[in-house]
Amino acid sequence: xxxxxxxKDSLDLRHDIFNLSLQLDQQSLAxxxxxxxxxxxTMIGIDYHTIREVDEGITIHELWQINKAKVSDVRKASFAxxxxxxxxxxxxxxxxxxxxxxxxxxxxxxxxxxxxxxYAVKAVGLITSNNMSAITEEREWQLKELxxxxxx
Length: 152
Description:
Blueprint: H1 11-21, H2 26-43, H3 52-65, H4 71-86, H5 91-105, H6 111-127, H7 132-150
Helix pairs in contact: 1-7, 2-3, 2-5, 2-6, 2-7, 3-4, 3-5, 4-5, 5-6, 6-7
C-alpha cells in the first residue's frame, strides 16, 4: 500500500509496518492508531480533552473497542474531527487532527490506522522541517508500538 499523502518518509520502516498490519485484526490496529493519535496530539502540545470533537471521538472509539458504541458512531465522530481539521489554519495542527480523525475511523475500516500513521509522519515532518532522523524515529516508534499491540 503506497501512501496517499505527500510526505518525506522512511520507506523501509513503512513497509515493515504495512506488512505487520496485514497480520492484525481491526481491534488491534485501531488500538495502535489511537496510541498514535494521542502521541501526535502531545507532540504539538494539545490535551485532547480540551477539544470537544477530539475528546468525544477518542471516547467513542474506546467505547467501540469494548462493543459499547456502533461503527456508525465511530464514523460520525471521525467526520466531526475531519471537519475541524478542514477549518484549522495551522498546517501542523490540521495534520495532527487528520491523524486523530483517521485513528478514530479505524473502528470503521482498519486501513484508516495506516493512514493515521502516515499523517503522524507528515506531522513530524512539518514540525521538524522534514528532519529524516525525526521521521525515522517516528516510524521506529510506530513499529515498536505495533509489535506491542500484536504481542510480537
